[in-house]
Amino acid sequence: MVNVTEDVFATEAVNPITKSKDTIKRFTLTNGNGVSVQVITRGATITSIKTPDASGQIDDVTLGFDDLAGYQSDRNPYFGATIGRVCNRIGNGSFTLDGRLVEVSKNRDNKFQLHGGFVGFDKAHWEVVAVRPDGVTLSHTNPDGHEGYPGKVTVAAGFTLSEDNCLHVDLSAVTDKPTPVNLTNHSYFNLAGHKSGASGLYEHNIEINAYAITETDQSSIPTGKILPVEGTAFDIRAPGNLGERLKNLQPARGFDDNFCVTFDPPQPLAKVARASHPPSGRWLEVVSNQPGVQFYTSNFMPDVERGELAIPGKEGASYAKHGAFCLETQKFPDSVNHSNFPSTILRPGERYHHEVIYKFGVSR
Question: Active-site residue 328, yes or no?
Answer without folding.
Answer: yes
